[in-house]
């Protein structure tokens, strides 16, 4: 601890599902209370900056509505009647129900379900140890990253890229498909630094004039799902006007001549008709990056959350290979560092890898609705799911096809235990609810996705009486379920952290002293100057969509997803998206809100006040055609269902596009149903994911 202005400062890492994984300085006001939270100034990526919602984390950790005691359902599912329980009795009940379910249907009827409510490796991933020990159904975690990661690695062969801190040394930063001001503020820290110190240009490509685009020198607003067309037209111009680096292409890429021939008819005029951009906009962007060697492509997740999202990511990434900007400091491309060698932890003990059974079926976590409603194609030949433990996620709010999720969770033959911090939409439908600690109340370790640091998050304050850690719940259930004798059980969080770090010169105490460790690869490795990650060392313009390598490839038992045969040989625009039609004339995206993070922070009063209410951004000209006034109550719907929102006129998007920002609690909506009523749970090609920004809808006055 350091002392500053009589306030003790503790050091931690932000646990939330954001690539920044900010290093934090936390004001400690007492053994169980915090004040403001600050970004660590001496961390080279965080650079003293943290988002406003984490800065006021005291509002969340000391919130009066935090869950404090185990609760057992006392009435019908979802009617809100609970009785308090001791921890011992609640865990006994959970184990009893799991054992009974297993006796009836076999072990695969139990489905431990989790995700990224915390990104701490111990508290997040320890549930896998229980899964593998008991041979419960496997968990294919696909919802967030799969479309983007698959498209990126199909090109590079590895999930890494230029050091993200190099944005500060760039002459042009292209922020593509991520509203960084809202979702990863540190991107802007380094981009703005380059503008101030080098006169760098900032280009933002997105589907609406969001907070990030307001910071841009060049903003390109295109239609959802058309990024591949823009990328192809840009590369067409680069070849046409001799701005392609042919020497680099010959040395480092698989088929540059084939790509150039393929792009011959992908003109700016062709792309303008698809994207809604003008020819002049496309050509100006192409010429800017074609004449700026130090161009840094910061590729986000949002633009890949379409049914053609992997193709879009690969196409945008391909531009950097055509310009050869990988060769320069401050140039190249970056999406995530999740695949760097420094992040290869030893998870054998934590996740129980040694007793993983390849014969146990996997279930797709994005398809929880079809799984819980017993869709044959979602169950992979196994029994129905009749028991669940849910940690670190809120599927009743965030998962696609919300009506199916609700129908499934309300099944009388399904027993659900939810371990949570607040009474979320998912917890409301549970049979047992257990109170959970928050990140400052337990030990954990974190790795960056948007940066290159391993950061320790030690316990800094005592939790209230009642909440227990994820690790505690897994350990206690293991005792009751007869597997606590297996390797990996019986260890403390610190012991697990040491086991994770044992392949490098780090342990809990060392990391606590130095706070973080920089794992950034050397320049040549990060920029692929020693070759790309494919066996031949080449960047692939021709991806192996059917069966090629990817960071999160489905197990063989699940096969390939979606219409893989329609994915293109070279970068292209492919119409796998939900195209607007006469019945559904609008395309809906469910973009992030500034003051929420997925379903987190929706309970804090400042975030609620700043977001006001669920609204639908609609172009004023579209509203006029529909006869809608600003603030009008409208019904937005498709074949999956309908929700009620209020209009907000916004001219910063294309005609025919509407946007609902933020994942509001379902209860914030008029009929108690949230925006994910409208999103689809079908698994996109080739390896799944959730195409939450790819929805055709109608909009009607109510």
TrEMBL record:
PROSITE patterns: 4FE4S_MOW_BIS_MGD
Lineage, broadest ranks: Bacteria, Pseudomonadati, Pseudomonadota, Alphaproteobacteria, Hyphomicrobiales
Gene3D superfamilies listed in its UniProt record: 2.40.40.20, 3.40.50.740, ADC-like domains (2.20.25.90), Dimethylsulfoxide Reductase, domain 2 (3.40.228.10), Formate dehydrogenase/DMSO reductase (3.30.2070.10)
Keywords from the UniProt entry: Iron, Iron-sulfur, Metal-binding
Native source organism of the sequence: Mesorhizobium hungaricum
Keyword Iron-sulfur: yes
One Pfam family hit: Molybdop_Fe4S4
4Fe-4S Mo/W bis-MGD-type domain: residues covered: 7-65
GO molecular function: iron-sulfur cluster binding; metal ion binding; molybdopterin cofactor binding; oxidoreductase activity
Protein name per the record: Dehydrogenase
Classification via SMART domains: Molybdop_Fe4S4 (SM00926)
